[in-house]
Design goal:
Blueprint: H1 2-18, H2 28-32, H3 35-58, H4 67-80, H5 83-92, H6 97-129, H7 131-138, H8 143-161, H9 169-178, H10 184-197
Helix pairs in contact: 1-3, 1-4, 1-5, 3-5, 3-9, 4-6, 5-6, 6-7, 6-8, 8-9
């Protein structure tokens, strides 16, 4: 599951960069014409890279993959695979309201599917590791998840209220920044499981 996911994510990033076309001219104006595409690509690259990092970290908890986990992971990858399309449409239309809104909604769906994958993995782990681990998992804070969704909702409002601007991307970048450091609860849980094995 991890190797397949890594391959899909690598392809997504590659497709995104291929959507940036070099200008025909050699003037500064031609160079500056690429700025919207580079901004959109950079935001999307940070987003996909952050998801890849957290996904890699999350899968350290997995010892045995089941069908529910596979399907949850496939749904996450399916939604994530729309990033290149949403990114390209947004930058080619000069951040018009509908494409930017679709881009933000795409981000929200990726967040929700990732959170679902995390929930499925934690539930499976709680069943495998007994009551103590189960209680520890149920205590987890939802602050980062809720803050991420709140920032994405703010991005949606900005996409509708301030069309043809880059302001909708700011809350998305802030949401990605929340996840640059992977979930430390996973590290604590791995330490707990290591102690249990000893």
């Amino acid at each position: 599951m991890e190797a397949f996911s890594d391959g899909v994510i690598a392809i997504i990033i590659t497709i995104m960069v291929l959507e940036i076309t070099a200008p025909d001219g050699a003037s500064m104006a031609d160079f500056l014409s690429m700025v919207p595409a580079v901004i959109a690509y950079t935001v999307s690259f940070v987003g996909v890279g952050t998801y890849w990092n957290n996904h890699h970290h999350l899968l350290k908890l997995v010892h045995k993959v089941d069908g529910r986990m596979l399907w949850s992971n496939l749904v996450f990858l399916f939604v994530l695979s729309f990033f290149p399309l949403a990114t390209d449409w947004m930058q080619k239309t000069g951040y018009a309201p509908l494409p930017t809104t679709c881009y933000v909604v795409s981000n929200m769906l990726v967040s929700l599917t990732y959170m679902n994958l995390e929930r499925v993995i934690r539930h499976k782990l709680a069943m495998e590791c007994g009551a103590k681990a189960s209680v520890d998992l149920r205590k987890r804070s939802l602050l980062k998840e809720r803050l991420t969704l709140a920032l994405e909702c703010l991005a949606l409002v900005l996409a509708l209220a301030l069309p043809a601007s880059h302001w909708a991307l700011v809350p998305l970048v802030l949401a990605f920044c929340l996840w640059i450091v992977p979930d430390l609860r996973i590290v604590r849980l791995l330490d707990f499981l290591a102690e249990e094995e000893e």
